[in-house]
Amino acid sequence: MTSKSFCNDFKEFLQKEPNFAATKKQLANNSAVAYFTIFKTVVKRAYEKGLFKENPAARVKAIAKKDTRREYLNLEELQTLARTESDLPVLKNACLFSALTGLRYSDIENLTWANVRTTGKDYYLRFKQQKTSGEETLPISRQAYELLGEPKAATDKVFAGLLYSSWQNMKIQQWAYKAGITKTITFHCFRHTYDTLQLSLGTDIYTVSKMLGHRSLSTTQVYAKIVDKSKRDAADKIKLEF
Fold first, then answer.
1. Is the CB of residue 167 less than 8 Å from the CB of residue 186?
2. What angle separates helix 188-200 from helix 89-101, to the nearest 10 degrees?
3. Is the separation of the CB atoms in 144 and 187 below 8 Å?
4. From residue 92, how far is each of 81, 89, 132 by CA, in Å?
5. What are the angstrom distances between the C-alpha of 145 and each of 7, 113, 124, 153, 198?
6. Which of 10, 49, 70, 120 has the fewest C-beta atoms lying within 10 Å of its C-beta?
7. Exposed/middle/buried for 195, CB within 10 Å: 0-12, 13-18, 19+?
8. What's the pLDDT tens digit per position in 45-67?
């Protein structure tokens, strides 16, 4: 039977025991936070359904979330990467597209031509976020649109051949080294780059949050809807020279 002691034991397991058989590494702290939060939610719901006389997890403190270092590129580094050849052109274009739009890898990988819209003057995407399942309309700049290449059939993947793997992350790192960048770079760094550059270029945090598809601002505890014009202005702020 689930008890407070059991909940504490599971919490300690998530924080201290090796969770990956191949590497014997511990689970990352914030991953442990997420798993334990799910666990507490399940126990609470079991209590609400009458399976427990009390909620034992309610008396167990949550795992404290830690700030993690989010690597990103400054505008000069991003510009240098744009001018540097990569062994995988489709991967390079996808990375730069993320830096210009803030999209996650999962959304870029699943992007089809049916998601790409243009009025001839403005460009935008209509898609469902893989992480949140939220329907999004995202304005993108002309440069971001040009990275997509020639339009194809509606069901075709925009970035055909893109497949998440440690090998592709290695290729990203090799591309960065070739450009003289020694930071540890992964695909997700380009989303962080978008966030950082937009804020540094004066876009307000609410608009950035909206462009990234966030539902709220945890740092300010304020949620605000941003008008489409603010999103359109933000989409054109990051420009590269090829």
1. no
2. 40
3. no
4. 9, 5, 26
5. 50, 11, 8, 16, 18
6. 120
7. buried
8. 888 888 888 898 888 888 887 65
Reduced to 3 states (helix: H, G, I; strand: E, B; else coil), residue 128 is strand
CA distance linking residue 241 with residue 199, whole number of Å: 20
* Crossing angle of helices 188-200 and 75-82, rounded to 10°: 130
Q: Cα–Cα–Cα angle for 145, 97, 175, nearest 5°?
A: 135
Does the global pTM surpass 0.70? no
State both tokens at 81: 């990467």
DSSP code per residue over 2-70: --HHHHHHHHHHHHHSB--TTT-PBPPHHHHHHHHHHHHHHHHHHHHTTSSSS-GGGGSPPPPP-----
Distance CA 135, CA 115 (A): 11
What's the gap between Cα 83 and its chain centre?
24
Question: Which tens digit of pLDDT belongs to each residue from 81-118?
Answer: 999 999 999 999 999 999 999 888 988 999 999 999 98
